[in-house]
Amino acid sequence: MMLTIDLFDETERLDHSIMEEVEKLLQFAAAEESLEGDAELAVTFVTNERIQEINAEYRKIDRPTDVISFALEDEVDGEMEIIDSESPTLLGDIIISVDKAHEQAEEYGHSFRREMGFLALHGFLHLLGYDHMEEEDEKEMFGRQDEILKSFGLHRS
């Protein structure tokens, strides 16, 4: 299994070590989730203004949010599945608001690193098919998130 992660800092304000840690965490999570085959995803770090534009355009919610995921492998009814074992599976895109991450880290009383890890992992689990629309799914997703963050060593302190 090889996971390729493309990281883009549109804010040009992120410390390189934060981006490295996000990449290590997602590699760790891919192993924890037993991801098979080669896969690829992109993580883009943006401002509140940019994520608000994306949120308004794609979710019709005109306010900034912390993280948005776009899964690329969602099957559409009637769509033929193209099987090409040579190409990596494109998981999708994770977009994280650096501004929101700072706000929420302060609000929850933990580090910016922890918040960035939490948001990246949250987005990644969405790309793998987890969701939190129903209470049972929410318990499963947030439980899995906590397990992975603890195993990786990103605690709330």
Structure characterization notes:
By secondary structure, the protein is an alpha/beta fold. The protein has one domain: Metalloproteases ("zincins"), catalytic domain (Collagenase (Catalytic Domain)), CATH 3.40.390.30. It is built from five helices and four strands; from the N terminus they run βαβαββααα. It has helices at residues 16-32, 48-59, 98-108, 112-127, 135-152; strands at residues 2-9, 38-46, 67-71, 89-97. A four-stranded mixed sheet has the order 1-2-4-3, with helices on both faces. Helix 1 (16-32) crosses helix 4. The longest helix is centred in the C-terminal third of the chain and has 18 residues, at 135-152.
How far apart the termini lie comes to: 32 Å
Helix content: 40-55%
- The 3D shape can be described as globular
- How many strands? 4
* Gyration radius from CA atoms, angstroms: 16 Å
Order of helices and strands: EHEHEEHHH
